[in-house]
Amino acid sequence: MKPRSPHPTGARRFLRRLTALALAACLLAAPANPAAAQETLPFRDPGLPLEERVADLLGRLTLDEKVSLLHQYQPAVPRLGIEPFRTGSEALHGVSWLGPATVFPQSVGLGSTWDPELVERVGDAVGTEMRGYHAQDPAANGLNVWAPVVDPLRDPRWGRNEEGYSEDPALIGAMSTAYAGGLRGDDPFYLKTAPTLKHFMGYNVEADRDRLSISVPPRVMHEYVHRAFRPAIAAGNATGVMASYNLVNGRPAHLAPEINDAVRTWTDEELMVVSDAFGPSNVVNTQEYYQSHPESHAAMLRAGIDSFTDQGTESEFTIEQIEAALDQGLVSEADVDTAVGRILSVRFRLGEFDPPELNPYADITADAIDSPEHRELAREAAREQMVLLKNADGALPLDPGKDREVAVVGPLADTLYEDWYSGTMPYEVTPADGIARRLGEQGSVVSSEGADRIALKTADGRYVTAASDADGGPLRADGDGAEDARAISVFDWGEGVVTLRTEANGKVVGLGEGNLLYNDQEQPNGWSVQQLFRFEERSEGRYVIKYAGYDTWNRKYVVVGDDGTLSVSAETAEEATEFTRETLADGTEEAVEAAAAADTAVVVVGNMPFINGRETDDREDIALPSAQQELVKAVTEANPDTVLVVESSYPQAITWAQDHVPAVLWTSHAGQETGNALADVLFGDHNPGGRLPQTWYRSVEGLPDMLNYDIIDSGHTYQYFTGDPLYAFGHGLSYTGFEYGRPELDDRRIDADGEVTVRVPVTNTGDRAGDEVVQLYTRQKRSRVEQPLKTLRDFERIHLDAGETATVELRVRAADLAFWDVTRGRSVVEDAAHEVLIGSSSDDIRRKAGIRVHGEDIPARDLSKETRAVDFDDYSGVRIVDETKVSGDAVGTGEEGGWISFAESDLRSRPDTLTARVARASGGEAAIEVRLGSPTGRRIGRVEVPDTGGAYAWETVSVELDGAAGIRDVHLVLTGELRVSSFSLT
User: Fold this and answer.
1) Where is the signal peptide (predicted)?
2) Model pTM greater than 0.85?
3) Residues 300-316, mean pLDDT to the nearest whole number
């Protein structure tokens, strides 16, 4: 794991001044004219320090002008020659939404490369293409890019799994640092683009995401969340973060004190923090956290939100709320200056106010988009991210010999799909295309999607028919119709959701104007995805069609109108038109027939990225759709030489395939070059070297409640999962073998600020070149707290020729072994022995060694001091809540009898009083019980908690204790509705 080093601030300023001063002198000597006069203003002098230039420009802007710059769409200031500026171009794995551009593998696929250098090159290419689009329309195509996503992939059901890199903070940190570094560029001052990390923080659930409060205990916050976000910012590669929609510990993430108290402390650079779309309005509208928008906007501004993304292009709402907040004295002009100064610092570094000849990225044009070099990089990235999950008896690579016939079957066999944040592919090489190209005249490919083709018939004998022209038209039940006009292919994407494609023109059916059904879409698409349906059986052989798009409609069912058109116009199934389904062709039988006649069958299954797992939609299950499972089984039984390719945005439970299919390969939706890259791997032109960036579980039953963000408590991700995964974190096979030699450590005893270099020889023992990802984990043998089973500390992807040996150097920093000590509220390196584990995956450890870290011992808890309730060691049935609307966490009751515990507490002074700071705003009884040893252990005190008048109306209560002594685990058991922020035993 070799992320790029931070850009030194002092060196950057020195280089900037050295290169700019000479040019500034030339500019000042230029003939007098209005433009030249404008350039002589201090903020346009590149020889001055950035801080002075920002201050000068701030001083020239009126208060109204400064407030206008707080919205995503910043207007021009003509009197100062300042052009419009827009935050928020999407660039997750390619330039999105602006037109054709190189589409690289999804982020989860980039994570599976375990190759920061490659990922940085991808980021560099995306940044270059973003500059190319910016050159065409600077106002519309902004250079502040909202990428990468660094939310940990803690649960594979998360709808946005495709957008993240990994479940592991160290791998996330390496990949995000690399990708953001490529987007940023390598100039010490100027930015190619300005990367913004998404989404800070605690975000991993789509359902009610703007209303949910996620409890994140201190250890998880520091050891899991912060460790994912910090590296790219500390390296100077990310220029800001985006706040997430959800609430964290009872407080909207847009008001998180961690923005200023943590994120901004990780760098000396100014960061521009942006809201998510409509996030500012949510604080009042859906979260109901403040009563008025001026209050909420003032709070967000003080919490560190600099740029408000709200109400689309309409900035009036944002301006009005901040002006009202100023008028009411809720914020000051200095608060506005702080936020605008951060925005301007990024704009300066993008080169906006400098002569273009100073900016190394100013001469990038649209010619850079979809360049031959980027096409080749797309193919390389697509190859490198593929993960060989199983390869029994050398089933792969395939022999591309003469007259070989390959059946490529399945719903993704001959199509490529884009996702919500994809760019538009300039061309597409599907799996069937790529395999056919690779075989050339040596063989042949037969393809089948494995989808049933049906005809829909009304009770009065009319068939549903579709227009045959490319633009499509309304579907009609208008008589017999030719079979081609009647044929509809049905694709099962799981959870009962299907898409319908009319064979008359090959277009997907969706909801269109007038709620009519049209066959006019290339693929499911859009924010609301209006191409989704369900068949509901009403009686034997008779069905109604339910519209299943993501937006909310009162009318959900399809009706045939008097004119024969199909529309979504019935509220209930009873009002809908009933259809019979006539099977014109059995998709599975067609696929089996093709597979049985071929030398090899390649089954390509997976997901459609707009369905059952995307933004706003979490998955209910992790299994393959039932129709795809049956297809895999049938084809494998028909042809024992079957290869399964899973092309998906997330892990799939494919236990049957692991047990029965000879070879299994995973790829993300890898962009325009997917087919070529797949053929490279299947035929051995490229030896797969990708590794899984997250755990693949055997079934959904192995997963916790999605709302449980605490991986320590839930026992998930490879760090804490004690079950048997289908495929472990870091898993991936190769066409060759690798042998690990004895590791050498340059030291086996280090202090808390020390570092160990581990050198391990790795030999390619096979007969072909290949890549190995050497992974180093550690495990702390003794600790005051529950430690992970293992934690990734370093890794390196290496390429070795057949028979070649290389010595890999990996490092373990004692500081990385630190954890958050809740007893003292700080990071600590504990005095302990650690096992160093080196291997090919988290469950394939080849070599072990040991080190001793001379850290500190954590003393017994001193509860005589004020102790934060949230700094518990264990808990059950409680939730973490906000102490105030500005800062602080407290513990609130969630379930009756919920409790928090404080382990190894020193009661030898025999404390006789509990004092607690509490709040509650409800009637009935509420109390805190103090128990020793367990939640049901001996009770030594109980205090009634009165109604304090509100959730933020804090009062102190106390009670005498009886029998506290020794070193004991202390439990506070909470009954009734109450909150506790702190307590002491004295």
Assistant:
1) 1-37
2) yes
3) 98
